[in-house]
Write a structure and sequence with these properties.
By secondary structure, the chain is mostly helical. It has helices at about 5-35, 40-80, 100-125, 125-160, 185-190; strands at about 170-175, 195, 220. It is built from 5 helices and 3 strands, in the order ααααβαββ. The protein is elongated. The chain binds zinc ion. Zinc ion binds near residues 178 and 181.
Amino acid sequence: MPTAAERREHDVSARALLAIEAATADALRETLDSLPRDPADAEREARDRLTTVFLSARRAARSQGRRRLDAELEQTLDEARRFGVRSSFGLTVLPRPDVSDLKAAQDAAAQAASELRRRADADGVRRAAAASGRRLNASAQVLTADAWADERDRVLRASAREQSGSDVLPLLGRLWDARLDACPVCRRLDGTIRPIGVGFPGDAVAGKIHHSCRCLSPVFFSPIYLGRSAA
Ligand SMILES: [Zn+2]
């Protein structure tokens, strides 16, 4: 299991994700508070501004997710050195998937804006905006957790592929961490460990197992896997 120092890094990672969610919630509130009074104008404006908010949430989730993965890995390699394993294993640099992030942000913004419009036609923009807050926050959380999980997963996979000969690779574990997710399926997986490159049960990916999954999969030094296969 992770050492205390590794757990501290995992805690910082979870807090980093929560901080992005909080900043995004603030930006959403600001957007909803300042929409024009005309429903059609409000829909247009909401679509544009929500696209910006959602896109920056996804970008922040990617850059923070990767930065935290780097920090976790550094701590993990420190633990490995204590076992006499020296390694230059590092994370591969990948181009940012801007096109898919923009598409995800635009789709979610268009859907939210048209829902807002439907409500605004009946109840006025102000009420519609007040009623949309919770739902928008939920959508933003989904977009954020998805980008966080996606970035970490693709970087880790690419790094493991490129440096498949690295001695330390079989000793790097991933932990299923369901602290932000109360769903029964994810709770069952909580605490499960797998070496990098080996899937979790059912090929589940933390943060992507269901629509609003916010599970994390921090890395840690796991010498127990030395020489073992996936089973
Ligand atoms: Zn989950």
